[in-house]
Design brief:
This protein is α/β, with parallel strands linked by helices and 387 residues long. It has a domain of 212 residues: Type I PLP-dependent aspartate aminotransferase-like (Major domain) (Aspartate Aminotransferase, domain 2), CATH 3.40.640.10. It contains 15 helices and 14 strands. The chain has a seven-stranded mixed sheet, with helices on both faces. A four-stranded mixed sheet has the order 1-2-3-12. The chain has a three-stranded antiparallel sheet with strand order 11-14-13. A hairpin with a 2-residue loop joins strand 2 and strand 3. Helix 5 packs parallel to helix 6. It is globular. The relative contact order is 0.16.
Length: 387
């Protein structure tokens, strides 16, 4: 059987299981509304939490950087790919995150894989929340460390694993998301830091969905909790509306990543327009306008949950999942909403565990109360139709 035959067979199996994925093409800019096949939709499927992705100030900063530094970086950061925009963004993020060392990555996936494989090896132990993002799971596997997976947010189970591990392992590392991407709930960061300290473990926190959207100056949920992890991983492609990611830590850890993080070492650097636009986004996020957008986002998150009582996640989380369970029923709900010009993506395995397929509503600061009320009514109606 040829590779093409194998691919067709696998696609047929996915389709039969209700798990075949096909993209929707967005025409023009993306934001609280978007256009698909000529139809304007209310967009509740984006991670553009602060509605900055189409902001003209970011476009202007990127355009100026292209005129100044060209488009492509031309090489990896370690060769000739480090341009003024990259260095400036790393300085800005270090100031923003109040740390001494920052390394940029091309994606959040690359950041998690790069960090975990650089700081852990076969003689180490990693303790990972069972609902951590796929990039964390893959980073753990590729590190070759022994991996202990603890039940979601179960600190008692985590402590039992830490205690029973004794002195086995050169280094112990606890890794978690702060705001979980598919459930919208929040890790107990204070207790995780306490356990890490008690058992002499490092703490790595993925703040991808929290940076920008939470905390003073948008510094994330660790800042809200007063917790300083050993490494924070954050992304620019969500609340900041641009692209790429960072690892914030100490100068020594950042230098280690420069030398050992393979996704960083062996990737062409971000086009300089991206760091330039990101610097403009950080300036907005850190200022009074950022405060206003965060307040509006929190209001929208609370309102949506009032309108749709079955929506999960923390009260002010921009991620509001509605667990349906069965794959085809989930996609039927999504299609029913699409027919009403409301875009809410259905999420199925392997992104979420089997039997927990869901609608994942992504809230944004740019959503109007009218959009929320209409979406809330239509979601309630659709749930009655399918469930």
């Amino acid at each position: 059987m040829s590779l093409d035959d194998d691919a067709r067979a696998e696609l047929e199996a996915l389709d039969a299981a209700g798990r075949l994925r096909t993209p929707r093409v967005i025409e023009g800019t993306t934001g609280p509304t978007c256009v698909v096949e000529g139809v304007e939709l209310d967009n509740f499927s984006s991670n553009d939490y602060l509605s900055l992705a189409a902001d003209p100030r970011l476009v202007s900063a990127a355009t100026q950087a292209m005129e100044r530094e060209g488009f492509g970086a031309g090489a990896s950061r370690l060769i000739t790919g480090t341009q003024a925009s990259h260095a400036a963004l790393e300085r800005d993020v270090a100031d923003w995150m109040r740390c001494t060392g920052v390394r940029l990555f091309n994606t959040g996936y690359a950041a998690n894989v790069g960090v975990l494989t650089a700081v852990a090896g076969s003689s180490d132990r990693i303790f990972s929340d069972e609902l951590n993002h796929a990039s964390i799971i893959d980073g753990c596997r590729l590190s070759r460390a022994h991996v202990d997976v603890f039940p979601h947010r179960d600190l008692g189970a985590l402590e039992a694993l830490l205690s029973s591990s004794g002195n086995r392992g050169r280094r112990r590392i606890i890794v978690t998301e702060s705001l979980f991407s598919m459930d919208g709930d929040i890790a107990d960061l204070v207790e995780l830091r306490a356990l890490a300290t008690k058992y002499d473990a490092a703490l790595i926190v993925d703040e991808a969905h929290a940076v920008g959207a939470h905390g003073e100056q948008g510094r994330g949920l660790c800042a809200v909790a007063g917790v300083v992890p050993d490494v924070i991983v954050g992304t620019f492609g969500k609340s900041l509306g641009t692209f790429g990611a960072f690892a914030a830590s100490t100068k020594a850890v950042a230098e280690l990543l420069w030398n050992r993080a393979r996704p960083f070492v062996f990737s062409t650097a971000l086009p300089p327009a991206i760091p330039a636009a990101t610097r403009a986004a950080i300036e907005i996020v850190r200022g009074s306008e950022g405060d206003d957008r965060r307040r509006t986002l929190a209001r929208n998150a609370r309102l949506l949950r009032e309108l749709v009582p079955g929506a999960g996640g923390a009260p002010e989380s921009a991620i509001a999942p509605i667990v349906v369970g069965e794959d085809r029923a989930t996609m039927a709900l999504s299609e029913r909403l699409l027919a009403e010009r409301v875009l809410v993506q259905g999420i199925r395995p392997p992104t979420v565990p089997p039997g927990t397929s869901r609608l994942r509503l992504g809230l944004a600061a740019g959503h109007t109360i009218q959009q929320l009320e209409r979406a809330g009514r239509l979601v309630r109606d659709a749930l009655r139709y399918v469930m």
